[in-house]
Amino acid sequence: MTRTSRKPPRDPAQLSGKPLAETLEPSPILHSETEDWTTSQDLNEHGLSFVPEVMQDLTLYLLANPNVNSSHLFRADILFDSEGILRTPREKAQSFALTGNANADVIASTGGLNGAEDEAEVEPTSARDVAGFTLTRTIVRRLVPRNPKLDRTLDQTCHFYEAETTAGIEGGCRRSLVIYTPHITKEEDIPYYHPTLRSLAYLYDYNQTTINPNPTTTEHPSQEQTPTPTPGPGTLTLHTLLFPNLPITNRLERTLQALLNTQIRLARTTHLPTPSSSSGSSPSINQKHLGANKNPLKDNILPQHLVQNTYTRLKAKYASDLCQRWVETTEPSKHVFEDLSIAAFLIELWRSMYGVVPEDDRSPPTTTSPEFPGFVDVACGNGVLVYILLQEGYSGWGFDARRRKTWGIFPEWIQLRLKEEIYIPAPFSDAVVGVDAEPEPSSPSSGASPSSNNPFNLNIPTHTGHFPKDTFIISNHADELTVWTPLMAALLCPANPSPFVAIPCCSHALSGAKYRYPPPKGASTSAKDQGKGGQEEEEQQQQQQQQQPDSGDLKALRKERQDAQATEAGFLKSMYGSLTAKTMAVAQEVGYEVEKTLLRIPSTRNMAVVGGRRGTMVAGDAGVDDSAGADAEKVFGKIMAAVQRDCAREGGVEAAAKIWIERARGINKGPGMGKQRGGSH
């Protein structure tokens, strides 16, 4: 297979090949009697075709997301924006509070604005007078490191300048300048993640010279549009203000080159909209680089800073101890950090929904939180997530078909809340009990009554999901229970179904058998429409199952799947995307208001489906309306319709129930299914 080479961000022919220190020269726009600004031909890239709007919006994106340039950083919190466009952490928290059950006052009173209390106290540094340029905007940001034990936060002022445009019949020159100044007084104050500089500036010069009648000669030939200004030569230059008598190290030189490379590389992936999608005459880019989050599914339910602050606290509190005492054969760091991330998301989600807070934040400290309805972690695996949530003061428990070795490292009171039990969905239990079940006595160690807990000839206790009302259901990579999650939550109380979060992983049918769901119709159908098309989707199954590349090239197949998942439509066509869409469709069908969000966890299976977050059900043709009390009978009818439709492929509900029970026996006996291997989850 021929490997396609990727175009390097910069032209190597333009580089001198000399050490940067030997090529420095005074900056023609910033050098003054009081400040020795420098630049270099090696920090200069000519021949760029990006219009200034691309570079400006990309600059805002990188300003809010410094982690793109440094893996040591989590994010940047905006403390001040002279235009009032980029929101501060406090403003974000207040805005998100309005989308949940808790209002902004509740969020503030429970500590939901943590990390924002000092933002009003930070003043921007004084703006420089730059000849020929006008100051247009001032932003102050706080760089937040991943590990606060190693690095401290750093405040930084960003001044934006524009030069007077030299306009004419054939166009003109447009110049934009951004100066970044850290709030420090000496070199020793610079954190490791920041270049050892007093200030850094980006200058972009763009010459717009002629009108191009042929749009196919531009950098984006796919855009068919009326004649537009031809992208003339653009030049991006870095200017540096060094500390006196401080030599340029190899690390600093590499950092400056990397900053240029990143700016150019990301600019190449930014596309201008077609004329029909543009709201005005001036060009603007798509939402990928709008100074916030490039992915609309990230941080769309909770503010990034709240979840990351909580994750940082949990990591410092639990990570080292859990990794040191890990007893499974799998690598501990992935599972521990993943569960810490999910716990942080849940803690902030529950703060928004119920106004409850972790035990450490309660005043006075208490051991219980009466406002919280409790949680259950279905297929809890290693139990780490249950352990963290219980330690944080949230009441709940977890169950799994097999006890894990990890359970033994937890305190006794935690182990009592981790149950080795098998979930038998109520529709399956009703279909099987009385048909062919002749229960045998369960083992003495199970503690279950054959008549009440174990009528399925299994060696461990079973249950049908009769949890306390309003229990929050967690389904974290629960495989066979993923699509059952919204049904389990709705069956708990059809008149007022419980909220849930499901994080899909491996795809299974309701019978528990491995199954690849076909993509939703059109691969872009909304969740509401997906709920109506369950029966039609089965017609696509045979052509979707067991797809293999014609060439047998596994690398080609992997590349194809990665490319396909780069878009929303491509994601829905993947097995994982189709499973996520199916879970959302089932939830929507039984009346949930359902959302999806990308979690910041170290896993490619990082999509979360959240149902009932706002505490209301969507009114549909069944008349489901939480304000008047849901019609339990009609909701139950919709649940059974979904179950019967999905089980028809297995020969009906009773046949699917027998498959489920037989597979449950196999799971309990030992590993053999994806998540069971290695004792991970």
Automatic annotation (TrEMBL):
<dbReference type="GO" id="GO:0005737">
    <property type="term" value="C:cytoplasm"/>
</dbReference>
<dbReference type="GO" id="GO:0141101">
    <property type="term" value="F:tRNA(Ser) (uridine(44)-2'-O-)-methyltransferase activity"/>
</dbReference>
<dbReference type="Pfam" id="PF07757">
    <property type="entry name" value="AdoMet_MTase"/>
</dbReference>
<dbReference type="InterPro" id="IPR011671">
    <property type="entry name" value="tRNA_uracil_MeTrfase"/>
</dbReference>
<feature type="compositionally biased region" description="Low complexity">
    <location>
        <begin position="273"/>
        <end position="284"/>
    </location>
</feature>
<keyword id="KW-0808">Transferase</keyword>
<comment type="function">
    <text>Adenosyl-L-methionine (AdoMet)-dependent tRNA (uracil-O(2)-)-methyltransferase.</text>
</comment>
<protein>
    <recommendedName>
        <fullName>tRNA (uracil-O(2)-)-methyltransferase</fullName>
        <ecNumber>2.1.1.211</ecNumber>
    </recommendedName>
</protein>
<feature type="region of interest" description="Disordered">
    <location>
        <begin position="1"/>
        <end position="25"/>
    </location>
</feature>
<feature type="region of interest" description="Disordered">
    <location>
        <begin position="435"/>
        <end position="461"/>
    </location>
</feature>
<feature type="compositionally biased region" description="Low complexity">
    <location>
        <begin position="443"/>
        <end position="455"/>
    </location>
</feature>
<feature type="compositionally biased region" description="Basic and acidic residues">
    <location>
        <begin position="552"/>
        <end position="562"/>
    </location>
</feature>
<keyword id="KW-0819">tRNA processing</keyword>
<dbReference type="GO" id="GO:0030488">
    <property type="term" value="P:tRNA methylation"/>
</dbReference>
<feature type="region of interest" description="Disordered">
    <location>
        <begin position="270"/>
        <end position="297"/>
    </location>
</feature>
<comment type="similarity">
    <text>Belongs to the TRM44 family.</text>
</comment>
<feature type="region of interest" description="Disordered">
    <location>
        <begin position="517"/>
        <end position="562"/>
    </location>
</feature>
<keyword id="KW-0949">S-adenosyl-L-methionine</keyword>
<feature type="region of interest" description="Disordered">
    <location>
        <begin position="211"/>
        <end position="234"/>
    </location>
</feature>
<keyword id="KW-0963">Cytoplasm</keyword>
<keyword id="KW-0489">Methyltransferase</keyword>
